[in-house]
Amino acid sequence: MKRFLSPPKAAHCRPLALVLISTSIIILLYLLVSLIVVFNYHIEGVPSASAPTTLDHIVFAIASTKSSWPKQKPLVDLWWKPLKTRGCIFLDAAVPVPVPVPSNENAYGGAASSSSVSPPLCVSQDASRFRYTYRNGPRSAVRIARIVSEAVNMSLPGVRWFVFGDDSTVFFPNNLVKTLSKYDHELWYYVGINSESFDQNRDFGFDMAYWGAGFALSSSLAKVLGKVLDSCLERYPHVFGSDGRIHSCLAELGVGLTREPGFHQMDLRGNVFGLLAAHPLAPLVSLHCCGETHPIFPNMTSFKALEHLLGAANIDSERILQQTVCYDRWFSWTISVSWGYAVKVFDHHIFMLDALRTQETFEPPWRKGRDHLSGAYTFNTRPLHPDPCRRSTIFFLDTAAAAASSGRNGIIKTKYRRFLPDNCTYDPLASPKKLEEITVLSKKLNLSTKQLQAPRRHCCDVVPSSAARKMEVLIRECEEDELIHMHA
Predict the structure, then answer these.
(1) SS3 for 129?
(2) Other C-beta atoms within 10 Å of 130: how many?
(3) What is the C-alpha separation between 428 and 106, in angstroms, rounded?
(4) 349-393 pLDDT, tens per residue?
(5) Rounded Cα distance, 111 and 130, in Å
(6) Nearest CA among 433, 436, 440 for reference residue 415
(7) Which of 88, 126, 433, 436 shows its CA 20 to 30 Å from the CA of 212?
(8) What does each C-alpha distance from 256 to 23, 204, 235, 293 come to in angstroms?
(9) Taken in order 10, 11, 15, 18, is the CA torsion positive or negative?
(10) How far is residue 18's CA from residue 452's CA, in Å, rounded to a whole number?
């Protein structure tokens, strides 16, 4: 009787077996679908996705000295992001911490930095054993060149790029990240730019990245260079600078320069307005400041002018200095916008290529008159009209406001105020000199890797305005087959 009162064991196990079988089928189906997706992903030729390059992947190695650092620190503080930027300021000797500031103004005429988090300071190793034979040259070039190996030997984790510059180099970190993201850091890359001056390049190299402009080495290349640098330096005691030594050693490794026009050595004298107002079609990565150049904004110190530019860059870093050209049909004016910096308005229509050419507002760096090429540059230029009153009317950046405060969803508004030479007379009805203010409307620029690799200039429109002394310009993406041209 007991065997009839006890339920069969199979009756208890069947539900559990069904659950196990169902779960196994689901897992197998999931694995099968995953394998199909991965297989299709790779046969289409798309590489495995890795985390995008960020500021965390970059290590900065900045050359300075014990004597110059107290004066240059406020300039570095303009772009160095505390607790975010990794790297070190390499000095020739230790300095007191915190760095004493001699007055309430820095070397560039701005307020002394109050940053509570200073960039880390490192003392370079002794390089006196290396010979230096360039007559009247800076022997410190050997120490500075060895910063490359010293930066690598810091052994910081997760480094994709090492970036080198001077304490007078102003970097635009977001644009630097964007620019380097085009390249595979696992390959050997030497990224930078040569001088603007033909004379400088003739003497020191057309295919060399200049240290003042800053340059980047992929981590894979930097590690190899760090291993062989000292042995290489022994062969180049006759080379002038630190960048020349790095260039020579990279040449021995078989690596050439990858040019990025967003780096700027600024080997110019005087007013560099013409250069900045005709920036190449690439994100602004660096400016070598300030040397023999004037403040980039009128009625400001060099420091305040850079601070003003960086303020606009903080709102839309990728659009800073990007040049856009449009034509006003009613007055036959040509408008050239260098976003976040200035607007030029010509009182007549000019061809697009002429509008893009760099105006020679500056002079060669030095040794002017050495020969007929001493005033030549590495980009297209056009001379200024000898009469200041007959030149284009210039409007410099006044304010920049993000969407939250501009009153228009997704729109960034920048305002530019007229800057006129003294004692200029003009037609109050037809001349652009009658304008007092220009407002530029744009959307935040966020370029994809493909757009960085194959850039295209944006278009703009002059928006009808009822105000006689104001103009409004709207920047937008061009239509597929749209031409930027003057109107008959």
Answers:
(1) coil
(2) 18
(3) 43
(4) 999 999 999 999 998 876 555 666 778 899 999 999 999 999 999
(5) 40
(6) 440
(7) 126
(8) 57, 15, 19, 30
(9) positive
(10) 56
Tens of pLDDT, residue by residue over 166-189, are 999 999 999 999 999 999 999 999
Task: Evaluate whether 376 touches 198 at the Cβ level (below 8 Å).
Answer: yes
Residue 175 DSSP SS3: helix
pTM: 0.85
Other Cβ atoms less than 10 A from the Cβ of 206: the count is 12
Q: In what order do the strands lie in the sheet with 323-328?
A: 323-328, 333-338, 342-346, 393-401, 412-419, 437-442, 470-476, 459-463
Distance between CA 293 and CA 269 in Å, rounded? 5
Q: Identity (one letter) of the amino acid at 337? A: V
Place of tokens 């480094």: 159
399: pLDDT strictly greater than 90: yes
Tell me the C-alpha distance between 165 and 213, whole Å: 7
**Best CA proximity match to 280, nearest among 238, 320, 234:** 320
Question: For residue 310, what are the contacts with CB-CB under 8 A and spacing of at least 6?
Answer: 78, 79, 170, 172
Give, rounded to a whole angstrom, the gap between the first and last alpha carbons of the chain: 111
Reported confidence tier of residue 113, pLDDT bands at 50, 70, 90: very low
* The token pair that represents 456 in the structure block: 């295209």
28, two tokens: 């197998």
Q: Which amino acid is at 46?
A: V
Residue 94 confidence class, pLDDT cut points 50, 70, 90: very high
Residues in the chain: 488
Which band of pLDDT confidence, cut at 50, 70 and 90, is reported for residue 206?
very high
In the numeric block, which tokens belong to residue 245? 């030594």
32 burial (CB, 10 Å; 0-12 / 13-18 / 19+) is exposed
C-beta separation of 444 from 450 below 8 A: no
Q: Which two tokens stand for residue 102?
A: 């001699």
Whether residue 340 contacts residue 402, with contact meaning beta carbons closer than 8 Å, is answered with: no
| pLDDT tens digit sequence for 232-282 | 999 999 999 999 999 999 999 999 999 999 999 999 999 999 999 999 999
C-alpha distances in angstroms, 304 versus 50, 66, 112, 252, 301? 40, 24, 11, 43, 5
For 218, residues 6+ apart whose C-beta sits below 8 A from its C-beta are 160, 161, 183, 184, 185, 186, 187, 188, 189
Q: At residue 18, what are phi and psi to the nearest 5 degrees?
A: -65, -40
